[in-house]
Design goal:
Blueprint (H helix, E strand, L loop, with lengths): L6 H7 L3 H20 L9 H11 L6 H4 L5 H20 L6 H14 L3 H10 L7 H10 L5 H4 L4 H8 L3 E13 L2 E12 L5 E3 L8 H14 L9 E4 L7 H9 L3 E4 L9 H13 L8 H18 L28 E6 L4 E6 L3
Parallel strand pairs: 1-4, 4-5
Antiparallel strand pairs: 1-2, 2-3, 6-7
Length: about 350
């Protein structure tokens, strides 16, 4: 049968006043023993304070004899502060609407503007019943720092601002079977962060400074004829990115930007591509030498660029600038399944009429 009442409640309900006092005395001492086992102060959370106030205020002065995790003075200060808050709510001016507060914070987070410039944006939107001090209060209550501390920008803002001319690059390895045994082959990946276009070098067993510089020249030739010149290349602190490699990029007016130590998330787009090519393709094959690996990578890059949908690009492939026309009807005989890497990967295209 379901137990409807806690045994302690049943015990208290049937106890006399003298016996009830003994129960309280026991619980106080038990609580004190437990409290002594906890080092340092106990810091209560807002909902815990609310519970203590709810059950403590009806006890009046008797609460002074029961409190153990804080002093009676602290409890009574909470009571006074609660009364003042209620009084201010009754006599104070009405607060700004939730929508206006959200708009204020949205502008502050997205722009890094100071209070005056935020107020200016609100005025441009036809919002006049708000002053600079109110803007300041809303921003500070949300824990957003003043403008000089926010104006330096975030890494995400940097990527968005420079995405059109920003590439990232990194190495990945694949173990291959050769006449000399198992060896690690290295591949260098370049990715355009706006379109997710990928340029991949032929693999090598020895990614020394001369080889890396040679790949930098191949990349420079790959992007040489573009209207938008590449301005930044971000990379981690791998020692294979030699001084010669970096100097060549600078001579091509491409600024290599080295990332901080232990910060893989700052180069997350390339890291994600490496995971994709391994999970979707390379991990399914035993690779026999450099030529075999280069073929597998080349085939996957062709699929990745021309057919693979990317959520960051509204589900368009990197080579597709505009979405396809919308069709009101679908016929299965108009849909063609194209196979890649021997049928390991499939993509679907509409057959041209």
């Amino acid at each position: 049968m379901l137990q409807l009442f806690h045994p302690l409640l049943t015990l208290i309900a049937t106890a006399s006043d003298s016996l009830l006092a003994k129960y309280v005395l026991y619980l106080k001492n038990e609580n004190r023993i437990l409290r002594d086992r906890i080092p340092g102060e106990i810091h209560t959370k807002p909902h815990e304070r609310a519970q203590l106030l709810k059950y403590g205020k009806p006890l009046g002065k008797a609460i002074n004899e029961l409190i153990t995790i804080l002093t009676p003075g602290t409890f009574h200060r909470w009571v006074r502060e609660e009364k003042r808050r209620r009084k201010r709510k009754l006599i104070g001016r009405p607060g700004k609407s939730a929508v206006l507060r959200e708009l204020d914070l949205k502008i502050a987070r997205e722009t890094g503007f100071g209070y005056t410039r935020i107020l200016g944006e609100l005025r441009k939107l036809g919002i006049s019943r708000i002053c600079r001090q109110t803007v300041k209060n809303i921003v500070k209550e949300a824990g957003i720092e003043p403008s000089p501390k926010r104006s330096t920008g975030t890494w995400d803002q940097f990527l968005k601002t420079h995405a059109e001319t920003l590439w990232a690059y990194d190495f990945f390895t694949k173990r291959a079977v050769t006449p000399q045994g198992l060896v690690d082959l290295y591949v260098l990946v370049f990715m355009h962060l706006e379109t997710r276009e990928v340029f991949v070098t032929p693999s090598t067993r020895n990614p020394d400074s001369a080889w890396v510089t040679k790949q930098a020249k191949a990349f420079a030739n790959h992007v040489a004829d573009r209207e938008q010149k590449q301005t930044y290349l971000i990379h981690d602190r791998d020692t294979k990115f030699s001084a010669e490699f970096r100097q060549f990029l600078k001579n091509e007016d491409i600024q290599p930007k080295r990332l901080p130590i232990r910060s893989p998330n700052l180069n997350a787009q390339v890291e994600r591509f490496v995971q994709t090519i391994k999970y979707e393709a390379l991990n399914h094959f035993i690779t026999f030498g450099k030529t075999h690996l280069d073929y597998l990578v080349s085939e996957f890059i062709s699929y990745y660029t021309k057919h693979r949908a990317h959520s960051s690009r509204e589900y368009l492939p990197p080579c597709c600038a505009e979405p396809p026309p919308e069709f009101e009807t679908i016929r299965l005989d108009e849909i063609h399944c194209e196979e890649h890497l021997g049928g390991l990967i499939k993509s679907y295209e509409r057959i041209a009429a």
